[in-house]
Amino acid sequence: MQIEQLQFDEIGNLHQVSSVEVGQHFYWQIGNFQVHAQVLITSRVVIAILLALPAATTRNLRSIPTGTQNFIEYVLESIRDSTRTQMGEEEYRPWVPFIGTMFLFIFVSNWSGASFPWRVIQLPHGELAAPTNDINTTVALALLTSVAHFYAGLHKRGFSYSGKYIQPTPILLPINILEDSTKPLSLSFRLFGNILADELVVAVLVSLVPLIVPVPTTPLGSFTSAIQALISATLAAAYIGESTEGHH
After folding, report:
1. Per its UniProt record, what Pfam families does this chain match (predicted)?
2. Predicted TM-score (pTM) above 0.85
3. Closest CA relative to residue 101, chosen from 46, 149, 35
4. 6 assigned to some structural domain
């Protein structure tokens, strides 16, 4: 009887572990539709920061930049140089705004998750988190990159661009289509997985040592946020640049 009771308790413990959720999303119920309010709220905060920062730093522009203006110009020049490196001297200019916007949105989203404790905001149900901590955001960014990839190829080479899918032999058509289809998925899951893992690790450490861990983990999280944003923007630029190159 004791052995059976122990087995029953173990099964019950496994059931409790399996029922643990990574996070609870916050939804709005509008009629028959369920709106993912978490992403809408936090992404609007990120967009407001991105709009307010340039407006505040470009009021008194100087020919010799100093302070915040110098930092903003450095960031923009870095984005431009990175895009040029991935896409080439002839093709990079029209895509600097797209790549720059993606980098800044991902960076500020990641940074908000690393620096701002969204979970301290009490909600009736669910919780808030960084926009990139949600698969819906990362998939949307990846789909935008995919659309830009196909647009760049069609704009550069016209309908002859579709001929790359039957090179070097038409037998590879399904594989070539699958390759281009999986690239956006890899971009989205890479960003989502890294940000989610970072926030989970920090949350666990903070729960264990709440007074010590937040001090070193905050700059570490900010550094990780910048790296992930740079990787995502660089891969997006390389992905788009690939479609503008001739087939080899």
Report:
1. ATP-synt_A
2. no
3. 46
4. no
